[in-house]
Design brief:
The protein is mostly helical. Helix 1 packs antiparallel against helix 2. The longest helix has 27 residues.
Length: 74
């Protein structure tokens, strides 16, 4: 993997981590279980985070070539 790809992956992973934390906080603040995200209709702010999270995961998977494996637990 080239240095630019590694830098991009690192940048995307950092952003994904931030988005996942914001999404989880938003879900918990509204009384929802974050693990049930596929079964809920979201407010617009949560919907934006959900879409960004999915986009980041897709981009990471494309850069990794074989699919994104999140290095963080959870």
């Amino acid at each position: 993997m080239s240095q630019p790809d590694e830098l991009e992956i690192s940048r995307l992973e950092e952003r994904l981590h931030v988005v996942e934390q914001e999404f989880e906080r938003g879900m918990l603040a509204r009384g929802f279980d974050p693990t049930q995200d596929e079964n809920l209709a979201f407010t617009s702010s949560l919907a934006k985070l959900y879409e960004e999270r999915n986009d980041l995961r897709t981009r990471l998977a494309a850069l990794a070539g074989t699919g994104h494996k999140d290095r963080r637990p959870g």
